[in-house]
Specification:
The chain is mainly alpha-helical and 285 residues long. The protein has helices spanning 2-23, 26-49, 54-76, 88-98, 111-131, 141-165, 182-201, 212-243, 259-280; strands at 171-173, 177-181.
């Protein structure tokens, strides 16, 4: 019961912070997302590199922060887009720094410093394209809908998986995540579609197509894509944790693990959702 209470309280606190980030203003959004980026990169690097190459780990995080900040300024404050290329500067410094590392006996771990940027910082920076319009106006409703679908899918997959998936049907990806089942997958898919439809009829899903039927179809299609991409995102992080024999990426959220555990699905799903919107020209991003 104590663990249940702890998980409930921390879960409510986490949800409140996320709602504040999406529904208040661009400054709170930027601060919360930047903090989440730093923590996720730190969790990943601690898991993959441990205490080795500490200075280089800091440089990797600085590179990720620089990229996110420049894209944030570009989308939200009309910062010249051409200057986003400055994000390469700390990456180059990280590369040059590798030449001066004295102990190269574990140099294979150095690749994880670049992986942290590609795996976490790049997709996390893309969130700014969903949070700001082309004119720089902040509106976090689209991201809120994305995360509601992603996390709703997780809940659906868990409920169907724990009640039916462990007894019936085949495992989804037993070599990486033995508890995931196909029944859980389809349960998560149904939940994602249901949440997407509810958000649409509540007028919360900010799609702007030419007809209501097409808009509803776009919402359902995005739910399907977000669900599939989210499952892959979860499996990708599970593969990293299994390789390094780690249960959770961190413990910043009592009873829930680290931030990377909470956002692993979103790192793949949100960029996929944005790509869909841009490809079909459903929204002016």
């Amino acid at each position: 019961m104590n663990n249940f209470v702890k998980r409930t309280i921390s879960g409510i606190g986490f949800a409140a912070i996320m709602l504040a980030a999406f529904l208040t203003n661009k400054f709170i959004f930027g601060a919360v997302m930047l903090f989440a980026l730093i923590v996720m990169m730190w969790e990943f690097l601690r898991m993959t590199c441990g205490k080795e190459y500490r200075y280089s780990q800091i440089l990797s995080i600085v590179a990720g922060v620089t990229l996110f900040t420049l894209v944030y300024l570009y989308r939200g404050f009309n910062f010249p887009g051409r200057l986003v290329i400055l994000a390469f500067v700390p990456v180059f410094i990280l590369m040059i720094n590798s030449l001066y590392v004295k102990d190269k006996s574990r140099f294979n771990k150095f690749a994880n410093l670049y992986t942290a940027i590609i795996y976490i910082a790049v997709p996390w920076s893309v969130l700014n394209f969903a949070a700001f319009s082309a004119e720089g106006t902040f509106n976090g409703m689209l991201l809120l809908c994305f995360f509601a679908i992603i996390w709703g899918s997780d809940v659906g997959a868990y409920l169907f998986g724990i009640t039916l998936g462990q007894k019936y049907g085949k495992k989804l990806f037993p070599s990486i995540s033995p508890k995931k089942s196909w029944i859980g997958f389809w349960g998560g898919m149904l939940m994602a579609i249901a949440i997407s439809v509810i958000l649409y009829y509540l007028g919360l899903f900010p799609v702007s197509g030419k007809c209501a039927t097409a808009d509803l179809i776009h919402c359902i299609m995005m739910a399907v894509l977000l669900d599939i991409a989210g499952v892959y995102g979860d499996l990708i992080e599970s593969q990293w944790k299994r390789h390094y024999d780690v249960k959770d990426s961190g413990n910043i959220i009592p009873g829930h693990g680290g931030l990377l555990d909470r956002f692993d699905s979103a790192l793949i799903a949100v960029p996929i959702g944005i790509i869909y919107l841009v490809a079909w020209d459903v929204m002016c991003l």
